[in-house]
Amino acid sequence: SAQAAVNASQQAENAGRLDLLRESASLLVERHKNRPESAKGIWIAATTHQAVGLLAEAAGYHEALSQHWPKDAHHKDAAYNAVLLRTTLGQRNEAIADGRRYQRAYPTGEDSDEVSFLMGKAHENAEDWRAAADLYDRYAKSTKAPGRRIEALVRLALARVELGDEAGAKDALGSAMKQTKTSFRTLDERGKYFGAQAHYLAAQRILAEFERIKIEGDANDLKRRLKAKAELLKRAATALLETAQLGVAEWTTAALYQVGFI
Prior knowledge:
Shape: elongated
Strand content: under 5%
Mean pLDDT: 92
């Protein structure tokens, strides 16, 4: 019976009959969760719905496979896809639950790291900056991968900005810049990207501080204000040139534009 439902799933896919595909998938989930062959029909339903852009339905099938067929060859992919699709759809609670399920099954590895960032993104999409900051902070302290730590620190800084925690954002960016300089030769492209972004964002904060110091005001204090502004410009230019030296095209372009502005 289970195999017959799997066969029906395959034939429904070939015929382009999503209604029949859903019926066969429902039979597999409701009546044949204990049969290993049933997972194939659920995988067909998940990938077919995903291919035609029905992401919520696809996510549901990926979740079903990840919950009921842990030994199936597609289990890891289904568990990951569930997190990705729920995050894409802005369904924060489901994305977090799926992410935790994935990390229980696959606690280490590159994909587990990516799931952590998807969970953070789900918090960001929901504008829950506190939850996002807590997640990135924990991850930055626990990961042994320098590139991932830099990314987590940059995302942590951005979340702290949203929370109005400028001091915390500055601290996170400082840590990211330090890690970039220490590990630059071994960083992958993603790590270099976020390392360059950290330098650029730090420079932007210096320029913001420069703008806050006004030339107009007490003439007796003008010399001190001008000296402070000149020092901030020097620091900003240094940070921007360091950004350009990292060789990431997007941030190099932005940094050199700001150098020209200075």
